[in-house]
Amino acid sequence: MQTQVGIIGGGPSGLLLSQLLHLAGISSVMLERRSRAYVLGRIRAGVLEQGFQDLMRRAGAAQRMERDGQVHGGVNIAYQEDRLRIDLEGLTGGKTVMVYGQTEVTRDLYAARDALDGVVIDEAEQVMPHGLEGDRPYLTFVKDGAAERLDCDFVIGCDGFHGVSRSVIPADRLQSFERVYPFGWLGVLSATPPVNEELIYARHDLGFALCSLRGPQLSRYYLQCRADENPDNWSDERFWARLKTQLPAEVAARLVTGPALEKSVAPLRSFVAEPMRWGRLFLAGDAAHIVPPTGAKGLNLAASDIHYLSSALIDWYKRGDSAGLDSYSARALARIWKAERFSWWMTALLHRFPENEGFGNRIQRAEFDYLMSSKAAQTALAENYVGLPY
Ligand code: APR
Ligand code: PHB
Predict the structure, then answer these.
(1) Sign of the CA dihedral with 72 first, then 73, 77, and 82 last
(2) Residue 44, pLDDT score
(3) Most exposed among 14, 107, 144, 186, judged by the fewest C-beta atoms under 10 Å?
(4) CA-to-CA distance for 36 and 121, rounded, in angstroms?
């Protein structure tokens, strides 16, 4: 089997890339380890920056997003009983975010790939890249028990944090930077009306909570929990009771509860691998970097990587120009580190850190008070939340 660009991983990064390349007349094959049903069943974040939305439009996959996505011009931060609305739109000269679940994004991108007869090989096992330092790399994999080979010009690692791509780069050619946080998020999806029209990020002495949403009758809530928490230890009653305690009283009073449709625990981590290229292998999205979900940046960072990488590949194929490929890692990392900083800062502001009792708690409170009183501080938050320019 042969193609121009071999893509490992069928998450948002791989899907967006293969679609944009296809529209530019460049062929690709995507190898995904899981089944289609599994990939489409994953529940993840749901706040899209303008840049992500634009990419969905360019990919020809924005129809449902335009119809069902909710435009948000503000976001709320609560600290115990105090509440602050950050006027995203007013503070950024009219920029907003769109609330539309990643699950739906993935569904729309698969539909767009299918509509163009895009080649996606599901349940591809033992995917392994080879020959990355030469100019004829290839991928081997097993499909339905048979060994297969895919020859290509480039291999793109879009296979997430636990994928194979990053692991084939020799240790002396890759530097990793990591911070693991001493807690996780327990998430619940419920078929209930959201407690608030806009998101509320809440800091409480017991820990962080987030009120998010997917639609008029679909809510997504999170509670800070132990990193190794077992979601089965959380009955619906326990979850709702704890959430109510951690929200400002007037918000808690409006909370509508119901059975959890999904309940899961996600660890919090900051991670960056540098550089994002080794020979003919390029990393994009979660394969190269992870942010804690507190700034809603994970999916959006995948989009900016794909923006840079797709235009670099198009320049190479259309004009023989390798400048974009050569500068991809540096360009992508410049934006990634700013989003890493913002996500780390939001996480530090809003969570309860076990080692923080005392001094650290007072610093968090002072940070929030400063935010309440300073338009400059609110503008900095807003500018980062809506997404820094590409
Ligand atoms: N071979 C083939 N596919 C693989 C392999 C492998 N060895 N390892 C992982 N994959 C697949 C996974 O099953 C998954 O579908 O790669 C895909 C990676 O997708 P994501 O983890 O969603 O990563 P990405 O596409 O970069 O999406 C950006 O940012 O914050 C996050 O939640 C957000 O998932 C989103 C991500
Ligand atoms: C979500 O809706 O799942 C969500 C929203 C904002 C975040 C993280 C997750 O920062």
Answers:
(1) negative
(2) 86
(3) 144
(4) 9
Radius of gyration of the chain (CA): 21
Q: Is 307 a catalytic residue?
A: no
Give the residue, by CA position, lying nearest to ligand 2 atom 7.
Answer: 296
Give the phi and the psi of residue 4 in degrees, each rounded to 5. -85, -50
> From CA 295, how far away is CA 301, in angstroms rounded?
11
- What SS3 state is found at 50? helix
CB 344 within 8 A of CB 179: yes
Regions of the chain short of the pLDDT cut 50: none
Residue pair 176/340 in contact (Cβ under 8 Å)? The answer is: no
> What does the pLDDT read at residue 43?
83
SS3 185: strand
Tokens of 371: 């935010």
Strand (E) positions, the chain? 5-8, 28-31, 47-48, 70-72, 75-79, 82-86, 97-99, 119-121, 125-130, 138-143, 146-151, 154-157, 175-190, 200-204, 207-215, 218-225, 260-274, 277-278, 281-283, 289-290
Using most ligand atoms within 8 A of CB, pick from 195, 220, 343, 349 the residue to mutate for ligand 2: 220
Q: What is the pLDDT of residue 253?
A: 98
269 to 165, 223, 286, 287, 297: CA distances (angstroms): 19, 16, 11, 13, 13
The pair of structure tokens assigned to 387 is: 């997404």
Is 72 one of the annotated active-site residues of the chain?
yes
Q: What is the pLDDT of residue 51?
A: 95
The single residue of 289, 297, 307, 351 carrying the catalytic annotation is 297
Task: State the virtual CA torsion across 94, 98, 99, 101 in degrees, nearest 10.
Answer: -160
Give the Å distance between the CA of 76 and the centre of ligand 1.
30
Residue 133 CB partners (closer than 8 Å, separation 6+): 278, 279, 280
Tokens of 360: 């650290």
Whats the size of the chain, residue-wise?
390
Q: In this structure, what are the phi and psi dihedrals at residue 265, rounded to the nearest 5 degrees?
A: -115, 135
Which residues does 331 contact at the CB level (< 8 Å), separation at least 6? 308
Does the active-site annotation cover 385?
A: yes
